[in-house]
Design a protein that fits this description.
Layout: H1 2-26, E1 29-33, E2 48-50, E3 60-65, E4 69-77, E5 84-98, E6 106-114, E7 120-125, E8 137-145, E9 153-161, E10 163-177, H2 180-218
Length: about 220
């Protein structure tokens, strides 16, 4: 009977948590960058679009690095990033990417959130960057912006820390709001379920003790 009651109590709690995460998923903002036109890259002098090597069939940005370089790709306004989880996703491909001098021979994404006054949040990813020669692989850099003020801008870059060829394609910037109710319900559900489980274990322990005591009296 107690197990049934515990199960019934857990259903609305888990449903509440699921609804929070479902709502967060629906509020996700998606910004897609085609990476198919040299005019997209305002900060580059002579961007090279490779029509033959591409993950989506529309071309990719090709970088032939003779030494370590940071390639500025896109900059967007900071509105909407006041309380948000931002994920910078892309597809990367490398060929003959090796260390040069003090470099590590890797390529990775870099995202910067700039605030008024010059403060910055920086995220780099993935945790295991591609090196050497690879096929197309998905990569991601994630940042949590929760300073309570609107950033001035969010910039996306490709860093080639070495010497070799790198292609980037399918660039996407996902933003999802960090809302108090999601955080509250997420923690509340965990604690409530834990308390119910502890209560169940204590009840079971009491029953075992009672049974042992009864056996002791019977003997």
């Amino acid at each position: 009977m107690k197990r049934r009651i515990i199960f019934i109590l857990m259903i609305p709690l888990l449903s509440a948590a699921a609804s929070c995460y479902d709502t967060a998923e629906k509020e996700t903002s998606v910004m897609k960058f085609p990476v198919s036109d040299p005019g997209e890259f305002k900060a580059l002098d002579a961007p090279v679009i490779d029509r033959a090597v591409t993950s989506d069939g529309n071309g990719s940005l090709y970088v032939d690095a003779g030494s370590p370089v940071s390639v500025a790709l896109y900059t967007v306004e900071g509105a909407g990033f006041e309380h948000a989880r931002a994920a910078y996703k892309a597809m990367l491909r490398t060929e003959g990417l090796t260390a040069e001098g003090d470099s590590r021979g890797i390529a990775y994404l870099e995202m910067k959130v700039r605030y008024p006054g010059g403060e910055e949040l920086v995220s780099r990813g993935p945790a295991v960057p591609p090196s050497g020669t690879t096929g197309w692989i998905p990569v991601e850099a994630v940042i949590y912006s929760d300073k309570g003020v609107t950033p001035e801008s969010v910039s996306l870059a490709l860093v080639v820390d070495g010497k070799g060829k790198v292609w980037i394609d399918d660039v996407v910037l996902l933003t999802q709001p960090l809302r108090l109710d999601y955080l509250f319900w997420g923690h509340a559900v965990v604690w409530i379920v834990l308390i119910i489980y502890i209560y169940y274990l204590l009840g079971k322990q009491r029953r075992v003790r009672s049974e042992l005591a009864a056996l002791g009296k019977g003997s």
